[in-house]
Amino acid sequence: MKTKKILITTIIVLIFSGQLIVPVRAQKNPENKSTLLAFNDKGKMYIGVDYYPEHWPRERWETDCKLMKEAGFNVVRLAEFAWVLMEPSEGKFEFDWLDDFLVLADKYGIKAILGTPTAVMPAWAARKYPETLATKKNGQKIVWGARKNNCFSSGTYRLLSERITKAMAEHFANTPNVIGWQTDNEFAGPVCHCDICLGNFQDWLREKHGTLEKLNEAWGTHFWGHKVQTWGEIQIPDCTGEGSWSPTGNPGACYDWRQFNSWLNVRFQHEQVKIIREICPDNHFVTHNLMSFHPEVSYYDLAKDLDFVSWDNYPVWNKPTISYGAAMAADLMRGIKEKNFWIMEQTAGACGWGNFFRNPRPGEIRKISYQQLAHGADAQIWFRWRTCTAGREQYWHGLLGHDGKPLRRYKEAAQVASEYRSIEKYLVGTTIKSDVAIVYDYNSIWSLWGQSGFEGNNVRDAVSRYYNAFFRAGINVDIVNTTADFSKYKLVLTPDLIVLPDKLAGKLNDYVKTGGVLLADCRTGVKDEYNLVHKRTLPGLLSPMLGIEIQEYGAITPDFSYELISDRLFSDKFTATMYVDWVIPKDAEKVAGYNQWHLENFAAVTRHGFGKGSGWYVGTIVKEEQFYDKLVEQLLKDANINKFIELPEGVEASVRQGNGNKLLFLINHTEEPKKVIVPKDKSDLLNGGKTGDFIELGIYGVAVIKL
Ligand code: GLA
Ligand code: ZN
């Protein structure tokens, strides 16, 4: 009741103050914009910075623009936190300051991406409409004053968001150097527990399940007497506990709560995108800056409204390591829309809010940037231009220091820009073509969140165990949704795919039957689409294809482990940890087993020829990464995929191809020089000349070879 009253009052207030949004036409198809957008009409790639004119005196703006131009930059992202400066009081807009900056930027050939500023609501909004502030789990309102303070269900907030978006779109639609939009900033959270969210959740559940009977069945409410008899009885479940002993809510309810929260973000963005597409010219793009593996929002759903995705890459924290994570994130970002992406924020210096971390070493931000280029980044934007002297991010360093001097990091970024300029003609229209796909599924992430089965089990780690081995083997991988067309791939892996609806099981079976090689592993297919455990013997509908049955299973706690044995896959000593399936290799070949009296008859790794393809199963988690190298070697052989390069440790390879070009990127992630054997007599694009038998990469060295 209370919720409804607030909503109605808000709408009435907005109607009478003339601020209600006029309905807009249906959204135009975002797919008509290709990634060639990343290269402007003169074939120049977009390279630039995140810039905050509001942080610096006007007298400094021109110096900044001049320095940007000198560095070879041609784009800035602006305004994503400047709501109160653009709408200082409700319904009164002030864009003059941004217009002035845009005119200046234009003078220096710099284009702009504008952020809708809804990640930080103005103080007046929080004071006037307190219901727009999110409510914590304990019922308290979030204190206004950081960012991401809002409730995404609040009708008031949604109207405020639509109004500023509309005002910006109308004002900047014809500004000559505005090229596109970023919605909000890094969607996800806060997860709000207010009455409006509860009401929205109940409505969403009604939409999803249709009847209470179905909802009760999907949530398994016969357990602990959780049956609900009216929609109004449904509460926001307590889902924050981790591990098997936490007193958390019903897993079906938590699963739906997570899907619902993802949907809330997607709906909020959709409302902004609709307005931008209606008002702005067709050549304006709409994107959003994602956070790689952040688990709260389904990026597949969020990206449906976007022309392409962008992401924020911050891989420099503690001691230098091989950047597997940033490569894997890039491959997911590319997999989301199955097309190239932009880097909207790229590490430019030491990162940190309260404490700052390591300062990137000479050559390091260059190689970070090349790594993304190698995996399909079509634009490169550094975060941020100049290190801020105020606020929460005083220690999150930009290309320039607090003193505004263009020193080492600026010079390195300028070097990157000039090198990119020298190769951009070869990059246009190229992307990564992979024979291997790894499936990444949000439903499985949400199922395992709070009920991971065994300690430490999560999708990201499961994916990276295999991914890192492909990285070491120099093989490109696509990370894709369950809905992807698997027939494009010779090899598909489904790590930790715990949620397996029958239809998806059928799709995996068909894939193998028609010639694909599939690898499934621990906990694959345990649950149905509602997060209820299947009643079948594991691995359920995959059993005939994998040729196995899983009789029992259990955790391996850190106080013990098993030794693995194999006469086919390896002769090394490998250790099974964390989890073990008691796999009966029925029709499958036992590729590896356990050196342990009670597991003698069970398999750790199996392979089964099925139809024209084969299905592999791995029933444990192995401590040593060399195990995954050996396994991947076998999988590649089985799938007829050629390893085309031998890489020294710490060197990464990736190939971008298309438009008549094929470019091999080599990146040295270490602080030792490395030699790599490469194809002979090919153009070495960065160093000039032709390749010999091998190429030498210095500390953090990079090479781009035109094959
Ligand atoms: C994120 C945000 C930026 C900034 C950086 C650094 O990626 O999008 O606004 O806060 O982190 O903290
Ligand atoms: Zn709320």
How would you characterize this protein structure?
- This protein is an alpha/beta fold and 707 residues long.
- The protein is built from 18 helices and 26 strands.
- The strands form 4 sheets. Strands 10, 11, 12, 13, 14, 15, 16, 17, 18, 19 and 20 form an 11-stranded mixed beta sheet that branches.
- The longest helix has 29 residues, at 251-279.
- The protein is globular, with a radius of gyration of 26 Å.
- The protein starts with a helix and ends with a strand.
- Bound molecules: alpha-D-galactopyranose (GLA) and zinc ion.
- Residues 134-135, 151, 153, 192, 194, 196-197 line the site of zinc ion.
Please indicate the count of domains: 3
Output the number of helix runs: 18
Please give the oligomerization state of what you see: single chain
CATH architecture of the largest domain: Alpha-Beta Barrel
Distance between the termini: 67 Å
Features:
single chain; 707 residues; alpha/beta; TIM Barrel; Rossmann fold; Immunoglobulin-like; nine-stranded parallel sheet; 18 helices; 26 strands; binds alpha-D-galactopyranose; binds zinc ion
State the gist of this model.
The chain is α/β, with parallel strands linked by helices. It is 31% helix and 20% strand.
Blueprint (SSEs and pairs):
Blueprint: H1 2-16, E1 46-50, H2 58-70, E2 75-78, H3 83-86, H4 96-107, E3 111-115, H5 123-128, H6 155-172, E4 178-182, H7 195-209, H8 212-219, H9 251-279, E5 285-287, E6 289-290, H10 299-303, E7 310-313, H11 324-337, E8 341-347, H12 364-374, E9 377-383, H13 408-427, E10 436-439, H14 442-448, H15 459-473, E11 477-480, E12 491-494, H16 502-513, E13 517-521, H17 543-546, E14 548-556, E15 562-565, E16 574-585, E17 589-594, E18 603-610, E19 613-618, E20 620-622, H18 625-638, E21 651-658, E22 661-668, E23 674-677, E24 683-684, E25 694-697, E26 702-706
Parallel strand pairs: 1-2, 1-9, 2-3, 3-4, 4-5, 6-7, 7-8, 8-9, 10-11, 10-12, 12-13, 13-19
Antiparallel strand pairs: 14-16, 15-16, 15-17, 16-20, 17-18, 18-19, 21-22, 22-26, 23-25, 24-26
Helix pairs in contact: 6-9, 11-15, 12-13, 15-18
This protein binds alpha-D-galactopyranose (GLA) and zinc ion.
